[in-house]
Amino acid sequence: MINLFVSYSTLLLIFLAALLLLALMLVFRHRSRTEPSKLQEMLAEPKVPEDQLGYLVPLLVYEESYPRFCEIVSLVLEYFSLERFLKGQEFRTALVFLQDSAFSKSSRQSVTTAMSVLVSSFLSDPDVEYRCRSQLWPLVDLFLQEIEGS
Questions:
Q1: pLDDT digits over 74-106, tens only?
Q2: Which residues contact 108 (CB under 8 A, 6 or more apart)?
Q3: What is the pLDDT of residues 123-146, one digit of tens each?
């Protein structure tokens, strides 16, 4: 016959083991949760105009492969509006290409070339150079390493 009665100390040990297991699961879940990127945070703010979201949201697709590119974009757009750069035909063409290629098959070289056009446009603007120099150049160096490795 099976003994259905379990001692108090055994129940207490089972309960503590279950609590420990639950605590470990919460700790690992918390560690695996990532912080939103600067670009994600910027796009979540209501100050980004609706018409510009269509250009910027597809760039989130590139965050995993080219995180420094997205950091450069978010850094510059933190201080300057996208409209300032959309006036340049090369910039607009490259941005539209990235927007379109985010959801289609494009070569990595084409994508990195379009990204480089955007970064080059940022760097050639004297106001961006002045305002973001200390943060921008280290990111550009890392971005160049990312595209060389692709």
A1: 999 889 988 999 999 999 999 999 988 878 877
A2: 150
A3: 999 999 899 889 999 999 999 998
Query: What's the CA gap between 145 and 135, in Å, rounded?
Result: 16
Structural tokens at position 85: 């750069």
Q: CA of 106: how far to CAs of 11, 57, 99, 111, in Å?
A: 60, 18, 11, 7
Query: What does pTM read for this prediction?
Result: 0.73
DSSP string for the chain:
-------HHHHHHHHHHHHHHHHHHHHHHHHHPPPPPHHHHHHHSTTS-HHHHHHHGGGGGGTTT-HHHHHHHHHHHHHS-HHHHHTSHHHHHHHHHHHHHTTS---HHHHHHHHHHHHHHHHH-HHHHHHHHHHHHHHHHHHHHHHHH-
CA angle 96, 102, 107 (to 5 degrees): 95
Instruction: Provide the residue ranges of all domains of the chain, joining segments of one domain with +.
Output: 38-149
Give the Cα separation of 13 and 19 in Å (integer). 10
